[in-house]
Amino acid sequence: MAFLFLSLVWSCEKDYIQDDPETKTNTDSDTDQDNTAGLHEDSTDYVWNAADVIPIVLNGTSVSVNNDGVTVSGSVFTITKAATYSVTGSLTNGQLVVKTDDTGVLRIILAGAQISNSTTTPFLISKAKKVVVNLQAGTQNTFSDATTYASTATTDPNACIYSKSNLTICGSGTLIVKGNYKDGIQSKDGLIVRDSKINITAVDDGICGKDYLYAKGASFTIKSGGDGFKSDNTENSALGYIVLSTDTMDITSGGDAISAQTNFTANSGKYTLTSGGGSTKTVASTLSAKGVKAEVKLTINGGTFTISSADDAVHTNGELVVNGGEVIAASGDDGFKAESSVTINKGMVSITKSYEGIESPSIKVNDGSVSIVSSDDCFNATKGNGGESNDGSLLSIAGGNVYVNASGGDALDSNGSIAISGGTVVAHGPQSSPEVGMDYNGTCNVTGGLLAISGTNSNMTQAPSTSSSQYSVRVIMTSGLAANTIFHVQDAAGNDILTFKPVRSYYSMVFSSAALKSGSTYYIYTGGSSTGTLQNGLYTGGGYTGGTLYGNFTISGSVTSLGSASGGGRPGG
Questions:
Q1: 35-38 long-range CB contacts below 8 Å, 24 or more apart?
Q2: Beta strand pairing status for 412-414 and 438-440?
Q3: DSSP code of 332?
Q4: What is the CA angle 388-390-394, rounded to 5?
């Protein structure tokens, strides 16, 4: 038994938070949220002598222990001194209580423990400086609370595992928590989970660390009626955050799958999140059923997120930053929504279903891959005031590959301005007026990159602004073309400039390319086929044949227009 305890020590000790290089990467100049998580953790938390471990054996309705640090009353045992204890066996209607004035670390090794309680919580940490719960490798440990509690005062426990102190859960064993009353696991201070397997079912919230939640190398399966993974300190702006570098996390929640009162940071892991019944459901306006939510800042540095949410898939009242990883999201409302800004620096964002794809006053795509399918606007840069006046918002695309598909709204929409300086932007506009492929109230300056937008027959169809340094063309055809009909542009030598295959019928085409040169003549063909590689409607490489010549144009200014629209005006919005 001593050898087993020592082997567990090393597996937990090898990578504690304060020495974790991933926690040093936070670029938030105001607060280093990752390092703050180390406040209640030290490497010595995970080191103990096997000879000093105090065994506690559960015998169904009684408890066996021979140490003055533990008091027993029937099937309730209370740990009163800071030391290292092991717990084995089962209690059918019992309780583990921690209550000590000692300032040292109190460790509890769960080595196949099962405790249920029919009147209250089975695991209560009432008072301690810090408690470390170690799940012994190869063991399964189960806690189940009552469906109703004998005492329901607001200051009383409301979770199956309830701690009023800083709590750490580590070790490679398994913890099963059945929160039949309200929450599964709750710490009123900080909560750290490392390298463990946690399985929670809860009537209300799954797991909550009020001050912070930090998880690394752990696997979670959570089914909750309320929020799944939560930190909710509203009293201190430096707390209430979540930092994740998990192995896997599978959450099905009635409320938000992940909710941080301040900041959320994901560094790695595989996340499968279903909130509010998924993207095919709708939620009342008074409820929140988002995939990932952070009130102040939301940062994704890595990891793979697969989200199906009734509410916004990813939401923050502040900044949203994607520095890497993958996000695949289907939402009954918006894909990404940030009240301050959205910045995508790297990684892959794929919003497969949404009302609006990405909405914020400031949207910046600097690199990476972004694809959006929406029933309304794909990109909506707005301050939320509506109307057709310039509200100062901005949609900026400087690089990467951007594909947007709007069935009923604008593919690219800014109530302020649009700036495109690089990357590839392919936009499949809506199926009918008055919506258009691109709509802006300020300016649209194109200084680089490739832009291709299909759209409707509307007099609101806009080309880039004449202040653009890269040449653009707006074509409004005399009759509509069917979905999947190629629109092809080539120069006088037959070199391909654009080969685009819109996914729905279209009347208009707006495009801009560095290949367009002043004084040169270009030819437009429709129909035909291409042997090139098709991705998101854009062909690259190969050869184009079999099309019908539609017309030609010569570049004489920053914007060249062919044809005119007959559609009606656009309402404010």
A1: 36/212, 36/238, 36/239, 36/241, 37/190, 37/192, 37/212, 37/214, 37/241, 37/243
A2: parallel
A3: S
A4: 115
The whole-angstrom separation of Cα 236 and Cα 483 is 55
* pLDDT tens digits, 395-447: 999 999 999 999 999 999 999 999 999 999 999 999 888 889 999 999 999 99
DSSP symbols for 430-450: -SSTT--SEEESS-EEE-SSE
CA 370 to chain centre: 14
Count CA atoms closer than 13 A to 556's CA, side-chain side: 5
- Cβ contacts of residue 210 below 8 Å, gap of 6+? 186, 187, 188, 189, 190, 231, 232, 233, 239, 240
Residue 97: CA atoms inside 13 Å, Cβ hemisphere, count?
19
Contact, 255 vs 283, CB < 8 A? no
| Strands annotated E in 27-139 | 54-60, 63-64, 70-73, 76-79, 84-91, 95-99, 106-116, 123-127, 130-135
pLDDT top residue among 389 and 24: 389
What are 343's strand-pairing partners?
Answer: 321, 364
**Alpha carbon of residue 105 to chain centroid:** 34
Residue type at position 297:
K
Around 119, how many Cα atoms within 13 Å sit in the side-chain half-sphere? Answer: 7
Vertex 244: Cα angle to 242 and 250 (nearest 5):
105
Q: Pick from 111, 179, 106: which is nearest to 143 by CA?
A: 179
Alpha-carbon distance of 500 to 506, in angstroms, equals 12
Phi, psi of 349 (to 5 degrees): -120, 120
Q: Which residues contact 344 (CB under 8 A, 6 or more apart)?
A: 322, 364, 365, 366, 367, 368, 370, 400
Share of the chain above pLDDT 90, in %: 86
Residue 255 token pair: 């409320």
Single out the residue of 56, 62, 57 nearest to residue 80, CA to CA: 56
Q: Are 525 and 497 in contact (CB under 8 A)?
A: no
Pairwise CA distance, residues 6 & 47, whole Å: 8
Q: Tell me the two tokens of residue 310.
A: 């009734």
d(CA 367, CA 425): 12
Torsion angle, alpha carbons of 300, 301, 304, 310, to 10: 0
**pLDDT tens digits, 291-337:** 999 999 999 999 999 999 999 999 999 999 999 999 999 999 999 99
**pLDDT-derived band at 91, boundaries 50, 70, 90:** very high
Residue 338: which pLDDT band, with cuts at 50, 70 and 90? very high
* Main-chain phi, psi angles of 13, to 5 degrees: -75, -25
pLDDT of residue 38: 53
Side-chain-side CA neighbours of 372 within 13 Å: the count stands at: 33
- Residue 563: left if φ>0, alpha if ψ -120 to 50, beta else—which one? left
In whole angstroms, what is the distance from residue 205 CA to residue 230 CA? 8
Is residue 252 pLDDT above 50, yes or no? yes
Read off the tokens for 403.
């594909």
